[in-house]
Amino acid sequence: MTPMNIVLLEPEIPANTGNIGRTCVATGAALHLIHPLGFRTDEKSLRRAGMDYWHQLSVHYYDHFDHFLEATGHPPLVLTSSKVTRPYTAVTYPPGGYIVFGSEGSGIPASILDRFPESNVRIPMIPGPRCLNLACSVGIVLYEALRQQGFAGMG
Questions:
Q1: What's 111's domain CATH number?
Q2: Fewer Cβ atoms within 10 A, N terminus or C terminus of the chain?
């Protein structure tokens, strides 16, 4: 099984990142955190949200988005945003793919979305709500990627 990669661009809420970390451990996905972070990764609330799984998590840190791209070899990306139109189910997620999520407050900046227009997806919602919770969004899109791959290596 080639693990998927979840990328959080400037996450702000430690509980969300902790819950995402737990989801990553449960699915074998790696977590990539791009600074600045709105918390310290040794913060009690982050560990509580991640329960006792944080030490099992494959987590990587980057100073900024371009540092992430350089360090990972410019991999194919899927970028999630409530500001685009293509549904997350309309793309193919390759094994080992990188799924990028923006910060809770502002999402992925337009300057980054514009660099990868063919890679932008959204989770459909009824009109009104601004967006879903970040941890829920990661779970939805990650499990679609894993479904497409036949849940390889998962029981």
A1: 3.40.1280.10
A2: C
Domain that holds residue 130: 5-148
In one-letter notation, the amino acid at residue 8 is L
DSSP E strands, the chain: 5-9, 30-34, 59-62, 77-80, 98-101, 120-121
- Does residue 87 have a cis bond before it (omega within 30 degrees)? no
pLDDT (tens digit, 9 = 90+) per residue, 40-88?
776 666 666 555 777 889 999 999 999 999 999 999 999 999 999 999 9
Number of domains in the chain: 1
* 11 close to 104: Cβ distance less than 8 angstroms: yes
Global pTM reads 0.94
Is 155 inside any structural domain?
Answer: no
Structural domain includes residue 154: no
Grouping H, G, I as helix, E, B as strand and the rest as coil, residue 106 is: coil
> Are 14 and 49 in contact, with CB atoms under 8 Å apart?
yes
Q: In angstroms, what CA-CA distances link 102 with 117, 130, 148, 151? A: 15, 14, 23, 25
Single-letter residue type at 126: I
| Residue 34, amino acid | I
